[in-house]
């Protein structure tokens, strides 16, 4: 990991018709968000766009100007619908061609006569990009400027993220504490929790219901880059819940 | 369902810090995309934004101007971090207050003295909105203009989507066919598939690898609103694969 700075931000851009049609359920946003949070990079936004060059370029340019990093997934394979590398080159206004470094990697896996035009498509890398290693299926991702371009297949994306993470500047990770509320409904503690939160501007406090087996179950999550503030806020939340439990009567 | 028109588009806007921190893995984008595809509404974009009013307003205004419908999830509960209804009112430039229709619904579930300010927060609905029924936990979603506002808890979102779907204009659903390629690598058929696709501009053809147990497995997906075109394209893909299989030699 590189230099420590206070706050490093990122966006995730998922590229692929198959996600927007519902055929494939995205698993990359959640994985990347959790991974980056742990190393102190805060994901602030995510988008899913179709395999249409103008849409990819517009989203890339909106996000790369706004966040420290943009992580894309999808569209770097060998078929005609894999247009991410060309879209990234267009967004950066640079050329793109078969990259000799990637050709060398591909020749470790394929004989020259088996490097079909489709496979050679995967060697097209925008000028000026660094490669991101793919230990699973060779064809690499790449990084240009603050944009990291990765595969869509989750297992391949994950090894690329491992590689790319080493090159990132990272911030102070969020300290996160989760308080199990049990069966008290949100509506019973919402007002008191709002007061606890309003008094602690440096701390993010959320209340998250989930629903299973016909019952709601709530968790309160406390987050801050300052561990002492998290501890203090957790104590305040627990004290608040204790008061409400003591007062609890059947509805 | 309402009138049939050729193409109806939609975006999904997921609202919530918990998704961007990776704590909660989104399941709503995939569900909504698949549900809407089946009734002829094409999801063209999805975004995830944090619990920050300006971010929600900006995303809403970008998406609602561009697509026929916007479906939001999250941020309509009783706690201080539930700010979606206020953000939607702001995006539309309308007022917001406790809604007598929702108060009546809440009084079916709670006694008046148990309607805490937190619970009353869930009765705040932008002026001019229609309600979207919530058969699970009463507090409704709503629809204003082309924006449908739903809960974040998947089971609650799903019953709201059932209710909202009845009010939508719907298009011609995509006809989707999936061809199992088996173990032929994408790089072997990518060129031929590209030719099949290029010759059929009204048909969307994608190739999707997945990776499990150390092996890639590919599927080709053919989509069009015209069933005859899908059938013709599938036949062309199958013929192409047959040629490649006949020619297959070990690499």
Topology:
The structure is a homodimer of 251-residue chains.
Chain A: E1 8-15, H1 17-20, H2 28-38, E2 41-49, H3 53-64, E3 69-73, H4 84-92, E4 96-98, H5 100-109, H6 117-121, E5 124-126, E6 130-132, E7 141-144, E8 147-150, H7 154-165, E9 175-182, H8 186-198, E10 204-212, E11 215-224, H9 227-247
Parallel strand pairs in A: 1-2, 1-3, 3-8
Antiparallel strand pairs in A: 4-5, 6-7, 7-8, 9-11, 10-11
Describe this structure in words.
Two copies of one chain form a homodimer. The first copy, chain A, is of the alpha/beta class and 251 residues long. Chain A is built from nine helices and eleven strands. The first copy, chain A, has helices at 17-20, 28-38, 53-64, 84-92, 100-109, 117-121, 154-165, 186-198, 227-247; strands at 8-15, 41-49, 69-73, 96-98, 124-126, 130-132, 141-144, 147-150, 175-182, 204-212, 215-224. Chain A has a six-stranded mixed sheet, with helices on both faces. A three-stranded antiparallel sheet of chain A has the order 9-11-10. In chain A, a hairpin with an 8-residue loop joins β6 and β7. Chain A is elongated, with a radius of gyration of 23 Å. The termini of chain A are far apart. The interface between A and B is large, with 75 and 76 residues. β2 (41-49) of chain A pairs antiparallel with β2 of chain B.
């Amino acid at each position: 990991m590189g230099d420590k700075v206070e706050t490093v931000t990122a966006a995730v851009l998922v590229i692929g018709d198959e996600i927007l049609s519902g055929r494939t359920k995205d698993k990359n946003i959640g994985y990347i968000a959790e991974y980056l949070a742990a190393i102190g990079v805060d994901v602030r936004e995510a988008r899913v766009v179709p395999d249409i060059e103008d849409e990819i370029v517009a989203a890339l340019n909106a996000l790369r100007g706004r966040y420290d990093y943009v992580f894309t997934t999808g569209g770097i394979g060998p078929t005609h619908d894999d247009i991410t590398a060309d879209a990234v080159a267009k967004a950066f206004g640079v050329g793109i061609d078969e990259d000799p470094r990637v050709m060398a990697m591909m020749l470790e896996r394929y004989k020259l006569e088996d490097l079909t035009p489709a496979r050679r498509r995967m060697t097209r890398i925008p000028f000026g990009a660094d490669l991101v290693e793919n230990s699973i299926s060779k064809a690499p991702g790449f990084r240009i400027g603050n944009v990291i371009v990765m595969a869509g297949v989750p297992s391949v994306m994950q090894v690329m993220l491992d590689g790319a993470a080493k090159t990132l500047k990272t911030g102070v990770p969020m300290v996160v504490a989760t308080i199990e509320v049990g069966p008290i409904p949100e509506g019973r503690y919402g007002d008191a929790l709002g007061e606890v939160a309003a008094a602690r501007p440096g701390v993010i406090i959320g209340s998250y219901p989930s629903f299973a087996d016909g019952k709601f179950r709530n968790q309160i999550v406390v987050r801050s880059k300052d561990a002492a503030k998290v501890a203090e806020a957790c104590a305040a939340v627990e004290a608040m819940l204790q008061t409400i439990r003591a007062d609890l009567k059947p509805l």
